[in-house]
Amino acid sequence: MVDPIGLTIALLGCVVAAVPAGIGSAVGIRLVASVASGVLAEDPKKFGSLFILVALPGTQGFYGFLGAFLAMMKLGVLGQLVPITLWQGIQMFIACVPVGIAGYVTAIWQGKVCAAGAELVAKRASEGTKGVIFGALVETYAVLGLLATIFLQMGVRIGQ
């Protein structure tokens, strides 16, 4: 039997995984896109160099979605619900937290780093790769948040 309170708490974990990471991605993209738009107004040929910088903060939203999707798969939400207790729901909620928090924070900071990279492209278009590398360094911590969520979810024994 599925405990409705346990399932509700677990599903709130899915929300905590996806929503903050998505919000952070939107904010991060806005930060870098604002700078990139100014650069493009002066030189539209720099679009290729700027596109990657603008897209980078968006990956955290995908990580949050993936963390939520994996939890929903484990809960059987997309098919037959598996039995879940209150404690298992709490565990799943906690397992979803790292990707949501890491995604939110790193997307915003990555947006700031990539905005600086866009400013670099404005002055020296050939140096755009360095801006991408700096942005990718921030990405590392978003990936670690996703991995923590995946490993924690693997430890939640549902349906037993």
Question: Could you describe the 3D structure shown?
Answer:
The chain is mainly α and 160 residues long. The protein has a single domain, classed as lithium bound rotor ring of v- atpase (Four Helix Bundle (Hemerythrin (Met), subunit A)). It has 5 helices and no strands. The protein has helices at residues 4-42, 47-55, 59-75, 86-123, 128-155. Helix 2 packs parallel to helix 5. The longest helix has 39 residues, at 4-42. The termini are close together.
Give keywords.
single chain; Four Helix Bundle (Hemerythrin (Met), subunit A); 160 residues; mainly alpha
Put the structure in a nutshell.
The protein is mainly alpha-helical and 160 residues long. The chain contains five helices and no strands.
Mean of residue pLDDT values:
94
Q: List segments where confidence is low: pLDDT < 50 over at least 5 consecutive residues.
A: none
Number of domains: 1
The shape is: elongated
DSSP summary, beta strand count: 0
* CATH-defined topology: Four Helix Bundle (Hemerythrin (Met), subunit A)
How would a textbook summarize the main sheet?
none
CATH architecture identity = Up-down Bundle
Give the name of the CATH superfamily.
lithium bound rotor ring of v- atpase
Radius of gyration of CA atoms, rounded to a whole number: 19 Å
Distance between the termini: 11 Å
What is the overall number of helices? Answer: 5
Q: How much strand?
A: under 5%
Indicate the structural class.
mainly alpha
Q: What is the CATH domain class?
A: Mainly Alpha
How helical, in percent, are the residues?
over 70%
